Amino acid sequence: KEIFQGQYVGVGMPSAHRSTIGMERAMRTQMLASKVAESAAYREGEA
Fold it and tell me: What is the extent of the structural domain holding 32?
């Protein structure tokens, strides 16, 4: 973590922090989408 923060000192922590939040949000959205797709496929299999 210390090395990671050190890399972004010149860039400015807010932008680095924002990109991290964006990545987490994207991963969460992807997980949600895959869960929805799984449940949809499960329902199709039942019908």
Answer: 2-46
Confirm whether pTM is higher than 0.85: no
Tokens describing residue 29: 């959205």
| Contact assessment for residue 36 and residue 28, using Cβ atoms and an 8 Å cutoff | no
- Integer CA distances (angstroms), 33 to 16, 27, 40, in order: 26, 10, 10
| Confidence (pLDDT) at 1 | 47
Instruction: State how many domains the chain has.
Output: 1
Say what the alpha-carbon torsion angle 24, 25, 26, 31 is, to the nearest 10 degrees: 90
> Tokens 């890399």 — which residue?
7
